[in-house]
Amino acid sequence: GLCCPGRDPACLSVGWRPDGSYGPCYCDQACARTLDCCHDYAEACPVIPCVVSQWSVWSGCAEPCKTTYRVRRRHVIREPRNGGEACPPLEERAGCVEYWTQQGTECKQSLIPALITTGGFGKARKKRAAADGNERAGYCVEFQLVAITPGCLQSHHSYTHWMQYLREGHTVCVECQHPALDSRSLHCYGDGSESKKNQLLHWQAVGNAQCKGTWKRIRQLDTCSCPSVHSFLFI
Fewer beta carbons within 10 Å, N or C terminal of the chain? Predict the structure, then answer.
């Protein structure tokens, strides 16, 4: 009838073990691993795993006008007992960018880091937009890369290979396509349209949080003219 949490050498009885031997047998959770339980341990101390609630809805972004995170949480309904499965994480965070302040005004474009990905993603996105009848005319912005973090070269996943073409001093083209094109401002966030000449603007690569840097806006064009390896997309 004993059931002791954790490892407790004092929690013992004398009787038959599951292997048929007779002598000291233990009633703590560790006995299942050390194989010295009492014969009725499984019935007297059934394994009860942790039970948690469903996830809450995602919160809003922690801060507006910057790349930050949102949170969702769940709580413990039943604690684990007798060596049952431990509780999983009770909080999750996900990347988040909010482009409107709590007062409902639009963030200044120059304060928002541009989120970019490879231009190869653009063909599939254009096809989806055309199929939905939502394709709107976009534009392209040329930037000169000023600073790049070492993290752009340290990731070796197949979906991050495009980051190796980011080089300080190079000119890159970043296309603003639907659906990244905001219907109210008719701009992609982070395109630097409100920046001053030669102002340092921030960008961040999608898929590798360690790959980011600064660039200067050169000009806006209707279509991109950079080589494909130096062509990217606003997200």
Answer: N
